[in-house]
Specification:
The protein has ten helices and no strands. It is mostly helical.
């Protein structure tokens, strides 16, 4: 490890990490590739971050702060959670592989503040603490997994295009309902805003039904 502070900053390492994630995906994110991106030696990176996992943690914390900064402050619990889901998804799209980063990182103060903010939104609802925690977790996880699925589909499409695969779709002839829906264009919903919003509304409708039972 260098004895003098290297001529690079933590901010530059973070920026380079986002570029690397955007261009090559989280599967190919390594300290070696990060060094190539910055044209530095590994000890320079380790001066600021002792491991790749620590970089992941820093990126995840940054995403949490970005989400918190745009969470809605007005509206009832349902309106705020619905808008929050959209904010979270948009931020996960803005920062490449951030859904995976949140899943790979332990919850630190920034994430705790984010989840606390979501819990504060549902706090006025007539639900038990267990229900509030569970439903908020379900909604948050839905958004995370939707964003990760969007990423995986993009990576698959890139892989298929790179391989110049002629028949990218499975043979649907044996599957009557799937074939019909494919012919109707229903498959175009995959990864769409419409599909995302329908899932959020389904979750919120379920929560609202529980509130009405109390």
């Amino acid at each position: 490890m260098p004895h003098r502070r290297p001529h690079i900053s933590e901010e530059k390492i973070i920026a380079a990490s986002w570029r690397l994630l955007s261009e090559h995906g989280i599967e190919n994110f390594t300290i070696r590739n990060l060094c190539k991106e910055l044209n530095v030696q590994a000890p320079t990176i380790y001066w600021y971050f002792e491991s790749k996992q620590v970089i992941y943690q820093a990126l995840a914390n940054l995403v949490s702060r970005e989400i918190i900064s745009e969470l809605p402050k007005q509206g009832d619990w349902r309106e705020r959670l619905q808008l929050s889901a959209t904010v979270i998804r948009r931020k996960l799209q803005q920062f490449p592989c951030s859904g995976q980063l949140l899943m790979k990182s332990r919850p630190e103060a920034d994430f705790m503040e984010l989840f606390e903010s979501l819990l504060q939104m549902i706090e006025p609802a007539s639900l038990t603490d267990e229900q509030k925690f569970s439903y908020t977790t379900h909604l948050f996880n839905y958004v995370i997994h939707f964003a990760v699925e969007e990423y995986e589909q993009r990576m698959l499409q890139i892989s298929l295009e790179a391989g110049k695969t002629e028949n990218a779709h499975s043979d649907l002839s044996p599957f009557k309902l799937l074939r019909r829906m494919h012919e109707e264009g229903v498959f175009n919903l995959m990864g769409s805003d419409e599909l995302f919003n329908s899932g959020v509304l389904l979750l919120l409708d379920g929560i609202e039904q529980r509130v009405k039972r109390v």
